[in-house]
Design goal:
Helix content is 43%, strand content 15%. It has 12 helices and 10 strands. It has an 8-stranded parallel barrel, surrounded by 5 helices. Strands 1-2 form a two-stranded antiparallel sheet. Helix 4 packs across helix 5 and helix 9 runs antiparallel to helix 12. It is globular, with a radius of gyration of 19 Å.
Amino acid sequence: MKYKKVGNSGLRISLLSLGSWTTFGDSVKDEALVGDIVKAAYDKGVNFFDMADAYAKGESERMMGRALKGLPRHTLVLSSKLFRPMSEDVNDQGLSRKHIMESIDKSLSRIGTDYLDIYFCHRHDPETAMEETVRAMDDLIHAGKILYWGTSEWPMEKIEEAVGLAERYNLYKPLVEQSQYSLLYRERVEKEVLPSLSKYGMGLVVFSPLASGLLTGKYDEGIPEKSRIGRLGFVRETWYREDPIARVRQLKTVAEELKIPRNEVALAWILNQAGISSIISGATHRSQLESNLKALEVTLPREVLAKIDKIFCPGSN
């Protein structure tokens, strides 16, 4: 495993990490299977495990926490997120001070830990003043409940506002942004996010690197039963279209020339991009995790990178 520093901090996280969106507590409810996947990841050097309170309404945090129990806490980098509604209560959502202070305790209890290494604001909250959010996250750091905080899919102007407020009032700044990034979703990260984050001293972790499985070739000939795109309508509307499927079929030729699966090519391509601290990947079986980890051993020649770039040029998808 390789490790990279997150932004200008001294924190190091595994280049490939394990996330739990739509898997643990959702499509994967077998506790033994979750434990097997998490233990296999840890044994291969994965130290960064990403969660969110909204994933399976808290059950994802519970299952990941139970799977991690017994592992030395100092060897783990644990993150979770808040923002999305957790109940019908009017205050049980967003980035108000009230919701932040209550959500962190609930997440810590579900995971079974005293602190989070990184706490992400899952989306920007247009209904809460930025200073309120930044001060609340700063207070959580001073209280020892989190070590760093970050943003996820925030507009760059809002990240800039948060950083500016933190600098003005001597508060802890966001350390890391979490963005969607894959061969099929490149433009925002490459044109907006990466060029700006370095000047703020922030790192970048990326999620959905395989476009919900589309880049594996799993959907070349239709939608398999019980697949993510089959189960989740909003994911199906995003990815199950002829143009991206056609591009993924073109990637098959590149993968066959390299004699490796398409998921390894897609992940290795991201690993080749500068400025990324970690790729958050998911797994419903141990074999998926092991296949994804093999991407760390793949070197893509310059001519292969050029072919891939031609198939998936930014702005074409």
